[in-house]
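From: lab user (bench 3)
To: helpdesk
Subject: output format question, protein + PMV

Hello, I'm new to running complex predictions and I'm not sure whether the block I got back is the full result or only part of it. Here's what I submitted:
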Amino acid sequence: MTTATARAFPNIALVKYWGKQDEDLILPVAGSLSLTLDAFPTTTTVALDAGARSDAFALNGAEASSDATRRVTRFLDRVRELAGSEARAVVTSTNEAPTGAGLASSASGFAALATAAAAAYGLDLDRRDLSRLARRGSGSASRSLVDGLAVWHAGDDAHSYAEGVSGPDMRMVIVTVDTAQKAVSSRAAMRRSALTSPFFPAWISSTEESLAAMLEACAADDFTRVGRITETHALRMHAVIQSCDPPIRYLAPTSVAVFDAVAALRDQGLEAYATADAGPNVAVIVRPDQAEDLRDALQGFGSVRLVGAGAGAQLVAPDS
Ligand code: PMV
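Helpdesk reply: Thanks, we reran it on our side. This is the complete output you should expect:
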């Protein structure tokens, strides 16, 4: 096959990935755990173009920036190395989430790209190896190869991949408070956190503890424990980010207001827990039978969308 199309969904981490042990291989300082969503997909077609001298990348119908194209080329270089090919490619991608606003578009983007590129270049990779490959584009993308709840293992290149875990059934309400591109990329902010936050060593050890506790809570099907770990861990990540020099703050006043509203709803018996990635938007987990009440309660903070657990990246017919 020299042309392939894949679709992938973003994921939202309940135990966050924040910091790299190896920047080239994208090996994380600790493991993480996420929920792959059933909304905001990225669909990407990779078509080999034997005569071309460089790769081309179009995102949402327009030529992508040179930075974005370079990132795609770097990723395809890895695929070409594995495939023993020198062919350049035309990459066409559409993204249903606002790019760069903390809704993990890089996760769905590189999961879809890895899946489509592997097929177009004729690589026969299983899901584990596709997860390892997607990781090289963006760490969180390793988790979007997996359906529903996914744990991404820390470790060396061979062992750092994501795989499925079972856990409580849940829904998520995504509150989009701002769709602007973030001022500091997560890549740069992770590096600054590791270099300048005095809390970074504690962040690594506490993430290991949170992940172990989260895996236990998932195995026990304990939504309350999953939720408590999720919210505490998210605020710890933002504490580390805010403690950089110079500081970075991703949470907007409205984001904080959503965390407060969620805490108030819990007091009233609506059991929900908030998290936020490297941006101002907030994702709130809830039991399925309270999901619609939560969505209604959070209208007014931004645009709200109720989502569930979705599928890992898959090849699709070109125009589906
Ligand atoms: O994969 P990246 O480089 O976009 O990093 C994403 C990091 C967070 O979204 C903030 C946390 C996570 O685990 O997804």
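A quick orientation on your result: The CA atoms of residues 6 and 115 lie 6 Å apart. Let us know if anything else is unclear.
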